Amino acid sequence: MMCPKNDSYHLVEIPTIQIIGVKGLPIIKKGDNLAELACDTAERQGIPFQDGDILVVSHVVVSRAEGNVVNLDNVVPSDFAKTFAQEFGKDPALVETILRESRSIVRMGDGKLITETKHGLVCANAGVDNSNVPGERNVALLPKNPDSSAQRIRQEIRKLTEKDVAVIVSDTHGRPLREGEINIAIGVAGIRPIRDRRGEKDLFGYVLKVKRTAIADELCSAAELVMGQANEGIPVAIIRGYSYPKSESAKAIELTRPREKDLFI
Amino acid sequence: MMCPKNDSYHLVEIPTIQIIGVKGLPIIKKGDNLAELACDTAERQGIPFQDGDILVVSHVVVSRAEGNVVNLDNVVPSDFAKTFAQEFGKDPALVETILRESRSIVRMGDGKLITETKHGLVCANAGVDNSNVPGERNVALLPKNPDSSAQRIRQEIRKLTEKDVAVIVSDTHGRPLREGEINIAIGVAGIRPIRDRRGEKDLFGYVLKVKRTAIADELCSAAELVMGQANEGIPVAIIRGYSYPKSESAKAIELTRPREKDLFI
User: Fold this and answer.
1) Which of A7, A47, A130 sits opposite B46 (nearest CB)?
2) Which pLDDT belongs to residue A95?
3) If contacts are CB pairs under 8 Å, which of residues 136-155 in chain B contact chain A?
4) Does domain A18-256 have CATH number 3.30.1330.100?
5) What does the angle CA B135 – CA B102 – CA B262 come to, to the nearest 5 degrees?
6) Which of A96-100, B108-112, B210-214 has the weakest average pLDDT?
7) Across all residues in chain A, what is the average pLDDT?
């Protein structure tokens, strides 16, 4: 520990992770090859993909590329949707779209709709998103199968670059008991979403009993810091330097705790 | 967009955030000056603090430095603690310590204790932590006032280095409806924990109505990726390159949604 100030020689290897925003992607539209656009853009930026990178992709661009966008003018609302919409000054077609994406309703109160989506996620408005979608009456749904979307992007990147890149599809997520939203993982490919540390020892030899870290959620939250959520135009980020547990079969549903097993609610 | 492969010349400025683990801190004990140790260690690593850095500190080392550690052998359990402990094979002194840190109980089931701490946080075991605390019978409590702890560290860093560094105290957090834990913020200094983006426009001019990003939680989750939670011995991380909203008066309690206002539960 004798190295002087400002010396670039390090006695200790410094663990560093980089979160790199992929900037300059075109506006994503139906049929676009997201993987190819991400590869091209990253390469032009001088940050071509490397083995071990993690690519975090906002679900909105995945949905746009997959054409999973609905024009509310084409939605005929049910009586139930109309009743709820009228009571709270909502758009009946938007309420109908949310109901169609849901398999059950967790809470309807104060004009807010918390539902369980067909994927099993519990979230506001079934993840139906009217920001960052071109066209005033267009809303983006969640991708139909976010794990498959992630897997397709992963395979396409491997084909184009021969690099082993894990892919995570992220969503913005309002939380029980916490204010503000964070980004979480709704689809994964090539990475285990939870790092199970039970059985490992801590600094003092104490064997950990309950540590299971939701690393896919943490990676999405880290990526949000560069992606932003408004007009930055950075729907894709690379996380470089993080050593993660690999898996070809893991799915994001592992991150969802069934409501009936939940102790908090 | 004509720059060739591997050219270091970038036509687009690349938004990059670094998460840097501060490695090589001594084992923190009561009375240690955490800020000074972090400054010294970061400087020896060749990564001295810069203006605009965010320092994320695990609550366990804050509690150890502040002496907020309890030896369970010195705790006399109440009858209630003994009854619950006996039913589920728990340590009565540990249950008593959890109850003493709590102002109400949210759930007691299956041997698990979810409580609301005196700070107003809802969490498992009132945040009482028996990992990474030396001494088999010692447990770390949450810092008494994590915002004040963060502020003290921030002021001390400014005194030692003249740099403006935001400080966040983090905790590992099990979540309603999600499996696995993530790190969140329980104390802040110099940073607004929520970035309020309502009123900003998205990429297509749509005015955002609901975006309030819990950036302090996202920063703690990002930091966890280098800090780990087991035997890495990295209780402190620097986040560099993230432009955050500054505040001298913000508090982490802004991240806590009162139970009576929660729609999810």
Assistant:
1) A7
2) 95
3) 136
4) yes
5) 130
6) B108-112
7) 88
What is the rounded CA–CA span in Å between residue A105 and residue A93?
Answer: 17
pLDDT of residue A66: 97
The residue count for chain A: 265
* Cα–Cα distance for residue pair B172/A158, rounded to 1 Å: 35
**Does B255 contact A178 at a Cβ distance shorter than 8 Å?**
yes
Q: Which residues contact A117 (CB under 8 A, 6 or more apart)?
A: A101, A102, A103, A123, A126, A127, A142
DSSP output for A199-221: T-B-TTSPBPSS-EE-HHHHHHH
CA–CA gap between residue A26 and residue A32 (Å, rounded): 10
* R_g of chain A, CA atoms, integer Å: 21
Distance from CA of B265 to the nearest CA of A (A): 5
Using a CB-CB cut-off of 8 Å, the residues of chain A touching B132 are 202-204, 206
Please state the domain extents for chain A: 18-256
pTM of the model: 0.91
CA distance A85 to A73: 15
For residue A60 the two structure tokens come to: 């909105």
CATH architecture of B69-141: Alpha-Beta Complex (3.90)
The pLDDT-based confidence of B130 (bands split at 50, 70, 90) is: confident
Q: Closest by alpha carbon to B200, among A220, A229, A221?
A: A229
State the Cα–Cα distance between residues B172 and B184, nearest whole angstrom. 6
pLDDT digits (tens, 9 = 90+) for B12-58: 578 899 999 998 899 899 999 999 999 999 999 899 999 999 999 99
Residue B109, pLDDT above cutoff 90: no
Residue A156 has pLDDT above 90, yes or no: yes
- Residue of B206, B222, B255 lying closest to A221 (CB–CB): B222
pLDDT above 50: residue B111: yes
Are the C-beta atoms of A98 and A128 separated by less than 8 Å?
yes
ipTM of this predicted complex? 0.90
- The reported pLDDT for the residue numbered B204 is 67
Q: How many whole angstroms from its chain centre is CA B245?
A: 18
Residue B177: strand pairing partners: none
Please state which architecture CATH assigns to domain B46-67+143-256.
2-Layer Sandwich (3.30)
From the list B8, B13, B222, the residue facing A218 with the nearest CB is: B222
